[in-house]
Amino acid sequence: MIQGMIGRKIGMTQLFRDDGEVVVTAIEAGPCFVIQVKTEANDGYNAVQLGFGETKRPNSPQRGHLKSAGQLRHLREFRVEDVKSVQAGQKVDVDMFKSGDSVNVTGTSKGKGFAGVVKRHHFAGGPKTHGQSDRHRAPGSIGATTSPGRVFKGMRMAGHMGNRRVTVRNLKVIDVDLAHHLLLVKGAVPGSKGELLLIKKAE
Fold first, then answer.
1. Can you tell me the distance from the alpha carbon of 141 to that of 127, in angstroms, rounded to the nearest whole number?
2. CB 3.0-4.6 Å disulfide test: which of 9, 19, 178, 184 passes with 174?
3. Interacting residues of 203 by C-beta distance below 8 A, sequence separation 6+
């Protein structure tokens, strides 16, 4: 049985329920279609390749690979234990989730460019007085001199921030709208609006 699907982040909104306000993220989840079924006998592992979104001008190899499900743009694999019940061309929709389920959402976080230690690692910065006019956002010491005479691996310093694969775990499903292929989850998911997401049932 397939335990996940591909979606796209629409944005964040609020829901007012009887027990109070809930901030949710709206995700366009599917519809996805099974492109390829991989078996342990042929490929060494059991998995299902799903397709999502339309592509305008597929090339000849893409048309041959996508012949079972149409012109789909985004292809992703999901591991499955049993592939006997899955067939190429099969539709996978948001009805696999229900209100109250927990899901793991994977996406690419927003890129922030080159960031200092205050923004990147939440450092407090240096003293704001006693003549320290240029230490407000400086990292401070990054190691000793003679011993060990080097900077340890993993030292938190300034550098590239964001634009990496992030998984947010155990987000609660608030509502499912099958007619509009919408999944509303409590809290935030990685990326900006329009970001491609992988939604999997939490184990």
1. 14
2. 184
3. none
